[in-house]
Amino acid sequence: MVASRLNSNIQEQTRMLAQLQEQISSGVQFQFASESPAAAIRTITLQKTLELQAQNQTNVQTSSSLLAASDQGLATVSDALNQAKALIVAGIGDSSTQAERDAMALEASSLKTQVLNAANTQFRGRFLFGGTQTESPPFTSQDTFVRYNGDQFNINSYADNNLLITNNLDGHSALGALTEPVGTDIDPVLTLDTRISNLQGGQGANLGDLTITLDNTPETVTVDLSSAKTIKDVQAILENAFAGQPTTLTVAINAAQDGLELTPSAGNIEVTEVGGGTTAAHLGIVSGPAASVTGGDLDPAITLGTNLADLNGGTGIGATAGNGLSITNGYKTQVVDISAAVTVEDLLNTLELADLDLDVGINESGTGLAISSRLSGAGFSIGENGGQNATNLGIRTTLSSTLLADFNFGQGVPVDDGIPLEIQRRDGTTSSIDLAGARTVQDVLDAINAEPNLTATLNTVGNGISIDDTSVGGDPLTIENTPLAEALGVVGTEATGPGTPLVGSDTNQREVQGSLTILSKLETALLNGDDKELQRLNEMLDEELRRVNLARGDVGSRLKVLDEVGNRLADQEVQIRETLSQEYEVDIAEVITNIAQLQTYMQASYQISASTLQLNLFSYI
């Protein structure tokens, strides 16, 4: 028995020695979780945290390098714009000869190339200013224009747990690559298929309980609408709550097609909130006792699935869809046939496929379309083609309510300069129309229509003003070429008789307001010695410099956040590694001491074993 016990002790000491020697060679306290389950769980957790921290640090470094490269590109743009500012100042007035302006125009062209190269900056195999379109150049030359091929979406990465940082800057934010979107509220109707999340302009409605009382029986029911996803679901839940009762409830879309209507089969209905809830208010149906409840406007947002027939309060876009839209962008003017479009998505796809360098979508508020031009340096407009499609879609760029101050790329119309609009009628008489005080296109139309025999309207094709003369005579209808007439786009002569108007040109086109547009037009203005255009570009340049500096500030603030996060991650890594070392890694000095002690114990055990195992029967006689 003693021998067996001694042998067991020696084996245990040998195992412990082997374990200590393994710790010395591996540097860790255990190889298998079963050796120390609690410590193993803590170690695994710490290792996973450390791996996540390492990935976050990599993300921070990558994002920082991308943003730093973006800032360098913006710095190049800013430098080019400052040089352009000097060219404008030198080019205005008589301080420079035309030969000098021609040389400045060459320099402006060089600056445009410099900005275009910066706009196509590539870093780590990724184009920086294309939004999420990172694999191809975001800006390409197209004749004298520059087309933006990217989008306006962000690329985000985790810099820390639950902290997303945007590490890109799209071309529109960086260089102003798109026009302001065209699109006004086109009031889609409410349908049974409208989703609850699309109510209130896309903000949705938070639905819960409400109470409905039908006083004919009477019946009071608390209804839970939290599961409703569409208006049809709301209809079904409310009607089912009174199904089989003496008094039933009918739920429908109201006559205005913008809200609900609740009607009991008899008596009155009352709709109230439950507690401090807001369900009935969100559905616009809070009401005291009444024969029926006509709900308020739920303002449904436009979606890709919205039918064109449901726009404008249910009147759709009219019966002229086959006439299409007349769209001008740069050198392209095209009639786009939208007769086959049924939904908003169909319409947007049709516009996208028309190859007119457009950016199409739904506006941020969800109330209308958003159509922009991608061409810097080009004029852009959307007009009619003999119908009212552009107007009814809310995308016509010139309406009767359009401000004259917006004409000629913001230079306006000189209505208050004391020069009248001179129109020579076909009967040989002349009308001098004073437009002083006119502020909108409608004011101009009204002033012309107040003259005998003259009729002014918006062009039926494209945009601009048409003027007709019903007087009889052999002279042509002629509008004198003055700054006022030129700004309105109505200079010209129409020899044909009444019924054929003088069709004016579109002087209210939109343009991209960014860096590449300014530099493109600066070259032309210098070549032409156009002081008025140079002054306009000077104002645009000041605004563009401000915008570019704000973009650089945004990038700088993100870099600062990343720097702070990176420092915090580094500090956390030190703490995690220290904790992990205590849980998992061995203390070499302690292990060596334990080995020495164990060897002493083993030596004593061997000596005791040797003495004990020599005993025999004669030792006890």
Task: Summarize the entry for a quick read.
The protein is an alpha+beta fold.
Note the total helix count. Answer: 15
- The whole-number mean of residue pLDDT values reads 89
Number of domains: 5
What's the count of strands? 27
Function: Flagellin is the subunit protein which polymerizes to form the filaments of bacterial flagella.
Domain Flagellin C-terminal: 540-620
Organism: Symmachiella dynata
Protein name: Flagellin
SSE inventory with pairings:
Blueprint (H helix, E strand, L loop, with lengths): L1 H25 L10 H55 L6 H22 L2 E2 L2 E2 L11 E4 L2 E4 L7 E5 L2 E4 L4 H5 L23 H4 L6 E6 L4 E6 L6 H11 L7 E5 L6 E5 L4 E5 L5 H4 L4 E4 L2 E2 L30 E5 L2 E5 L7 H10 L4 E5 L6 E5 L1 E2 L3 E6 L3 H4 L14 H4 L10 E4 L5 E4 L7 H9 L4 E5 L2 E2 L2 E5 L7 E3 L3 H6 L3 E3 L7 E2 L11 H14 L2 H53 L4 H26 L8
Helix pairs in contact: 1-15, 2-3, 2-13, 2-14, 3-13, 13-14
Protein name: Flagellin
Function: Flagellin is the subunit protein which polymerizes to form the filaments of bacterial flagella.
InterPro entries: Flagellin, Flagellin_C, Flagellin_N
What do these coordinates show?
One of its GO terms (molecular function) is structural molecule activity. Keywords: Bacterial flagellum, Cell projection, Cilium, Coiled coil, Flagellum, Secreted. This is Flagellin. The protein has 621 residues and is α+β, with helices and mostly antiparallel strands. It folds into five domains: 1-27 and 586-621; 53-177 and 515-569, f41 fragment of flagellin, N-terminal domain; 196-294, no CATH class; 315-397, no CATH class; 407-503, no CATH class. The protein is 41% helix and 18% strand. It contains 15 helices and 27 strands. It has a four-stranded antiparallel β-sheet. A four-stranded antiparallel β-sheet has the order 15-14-19-23. A four-stranded antiparallel β-sheet has the order 21-20-25-26, with no helix packed on it. It starts with a helix and ends in an 8-residue tail after the last helix. 36% of the residues are buried. The mean pLDDT is 89.
